[in-house]
Fold these 2 entries.
Entry 1:
Amino acid sequence: MKITSAKVIVTCPGRNFVTLKIMTDQGVYGIGDATMNGREKAVVAYLEEHVIPCILGMDPRRIEDIWQYLYKGAYWRRGPVTMRAIAAVDVALWDIKAKMANMPLYQLLGGRSRDSVMVYGHANGSDIAETVDAVGHYIELGYKAIRAQTGVPGIKDAYGVGRGKLYYEPADAALPSVTGWDTRQALNYVPRMFEKLRETYGFGYHLLHDGHHRYTPQEAANLGKMLEPYQLFWLEDCTPAENQEAFRLVRQHTVTPLAVGEIFNTIWDAKDLIQNQLIDYIRCTIVGAGGVTHLRRIADLAALYQIRTGSHGATDLSPVTMGTALHFDTWVPNFGIQEYMRHTEETDAVFPHDYHFAKGELFCGETPGHGVDIDEQLAAKYPYKPAFLPVARLEDGTMWNW
Ligand code: GCO
Ligand code: MG
């Protein structure tokens, strides 16, 4: 069996997506997601110039060998661009293998560990009252877990506050827009939101919060401690994790569960955090961390330390990643939760898929492969539109972590 051709499809049905389609001499094709929000064209070039020419003629059934070829063979290991390109190839090859086997992907991974996948939605508002309403809306929709983000008076566009009610899309400007940040105000305001949420809806729902890399370890420890009475499911990205050791200080001061990993690319980014049991949930995802082949290694390492998965699932992860992640989540023994930000109807139409949502859970389908396709004719109607993520500055102009 041989890979006969491969192409990269860029489309913008409301937001940009980069998709790799691999064709074979048996007529079976596979697709993989290669989207990197705000830096899409870098992965397009990596695939077109440096990956596709190398894999033509290879046997698509040799998924592991092709993964190693692209990882070790690049010499320049790791990094968000390389690992997304590898992920796109890997997912397309798993799709092909599962289609050849006439099985849904989760069967090839080891079969079902659960019937459905618990997801969390992203509720936001410009202040506490609005966020409380938004959480109520998610509860009405049947969600069992909700991440609550609020605007903070005095901060221009704090992280996570969207324009729509169910859709949150940060990459929305032809050049990066400038948002604000003030840690002191956020530390005063965020715990009050959780107090109000528990007062209003009780303790029957999981609540989560994203710190979006904004706090220093000491500030994160303080926030975690203040949030303890509200029993969060997790506090996400409480501090940047380039220095994995930073989480030790947070860990020493709070029992609020910690989650991190949406910007990690490989097992090496998570190794110390996992081995030292500094986190509770690992958030790496299929597209960001080298595909199914590599994410499986990360999940297995985490399982040794009773750390569970909680994959990133923002709108910039295409339905191809979501579909594949759901097969992964259906199999992975140490599953925790799956993030689920809804795609728009335009996006869903370009990527026909067989997963569905009901009562706070997502269900992967039984179609052979990962169950997601791309309608190329429709995709062609939505040309690429440059869109950057915002940046964040403190009041005095100092650049901060967005
Ligand atoms: C999340 C994330 C996103 C990211 C986005 C960047 O937890 O969903 O933090 O909102 O900011 O994926 O592209
Ligand atoms: Mg996040």
Entry 2:
Amino acid sequence: MRSGLIAVAGRPNVGKSTLVNALAGGKVAIVSDKPQTTRRRISAAVNGELEGEPYQLVLVDLPGFQRPRDPLTERMQRTVDDTLEDVDGFLFVLAASEAIGRGDRFVAERVFAAGPPVVVALNKVDRVSPARIAEQIAVAAALGEFHALHPVSALEADGIEPLRRDLASLLPEGPAYFGEDQRTDLPLEAQVAELVREKALALTREELPHAISVEVDELDLGEGRVRALVWVETQSQKAIVVGKGGSMIRAIGTRARPEVEAAVGRRVYLELQVKVRPRWRRDERALERLGI
Ligand code: GDP
Ligand code: MG
């Protein structure tokens, strides 16, 4: 069989996580309209067949490429650099619906210089006219020497199959890294934490995205009990996440529970607690514990 690692690169918000989910045919990465949602390196396995030969594509959804500003972004950047060294190819994602600009060029320079072949996905074509897609293809094509370029819509699962085939064609002979029905390498606790964080991000506004982090401190599959701590940095953030009379945190729990149940494979009682830990983003030990 063929197998290998494809790194997913692109500036924040172009739709990398959505595209990974579309390629994997199920939810493995959380999606948000707030930039820098993906903090951990997440691998997703895509199994298929190319010209009669089975393959396993391991997609690594990287945290956004960015200039490090604090221990959190520095760690995210380190993860990126560690991954670039031994991949079989890149999936470089751009958004057709937005101007292709400096952020994209910053990523392009590193991806095209790395060596392995680059497949470009021009995402979000559902948002633009055919004429505009053609213009954006020309801009994207000028960024570097690519192996293939695919206009796609991750959201509407449009153009995904040809993209998947092109990525599979880059893979060398190799073993299966993941079991048949294992789609991601994130431990169950981390998957649950990510799902809760996704709902918290979706329901809250303002400056919370960077301040929220979730830790599962109890996962009892026998009893069906899951307890997660939602960490924020200040009392006022806590007030927002808890909501009037606990309404916000209840809404987060209500939205997260069905997906948590799907992930763990049984009904659960999901308990959420909001806690304040000042400046957790600058706390290396806290980052270690959160698996970042
Ligand atoms: P990432 O930061 O690159 O991982 O981006 P996400 O996958 O989290 O997506 C960022 C935002 O773009 C979310 O609101 C997605 O729903 C949206 N999005 C992703 N793919 C598409 C697409 O193909 N079409 C449209 N219209 N929106 C998309
Ligand atoms: Mg993401």
